[in-house]
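Q: what does this look like with inosinic acid bound?
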Amino acid sequence: MSDDFGQEQAIRKLAPGKLVIASHNPGKVREIAALLGPYGIEPISAASLDLPEPDETGTTFIANAELKALQAADLSGLPALADDSGLAVEALRGDPGLFSARWAGPTKDFGLAMQLVHDRMEEKGPDAGHDAHFVCALALAWPDGHVEAFEGRVDGIITWPPRGTQGFGYDPIFQPIGHDISFGEMDPDQKHAMSHRADAFAKLVAAVF
Ligand code: IMP
């Protein structure tokens, strides 16, 4: 990061101790707790502190992660970590993107969301490419308003029909580059070693510890 005078600023380090995980998804909180445990981090879930979930009004994954982390840090008086992620399909100019969760509708029906991706790609015709990537943005914020952000991605193609029952969300239609199985068919450990989330966490860990 550089300051107003173009000078490179050192990345702020995260001291061992309490860290609010600004997510109301218990699975995510558990996964993050396991990843950061070795660094002496004591995770506290936003739900256990009764923190509100802010509206995701940002126009980028990083902006949304930052607004969630900054609000949690401000309200709790502790450092806070938030993430935002989604699937971007090149032929759809990055859709579903920031709206990846919303394409599944109020009942969180990812069969429907995957069908929508497929239908929109069909509308583009046979020459439209199948390239896509998952993005994961992580933001670490402190109560004084300082924030550090990291972005990870994994590149692949959209395949049809959906394959596999592992993972979640769009995993059955995403096949990472260099592999002939979808994330939905992949052993979770294998996915977690190469995913957009793994990439973002590797960058965060290398920078702040
Ligand atoms: P959020 O980051 O919790 O807002 O989730 C964004 C949405 O992106 C999720 O509901 C999923 O639809 C999609 N998504 C993010 N990461 C993955 C992944 O690893 N596999 C499949 N879908 C994902």
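The pocket of inosinic acid is lined by residues 83-87, 100-101, 134, 167-171, 183, 195 (CB under 6 Å). The CA atoms of residues 150 and 204 lie 6 Å apart.
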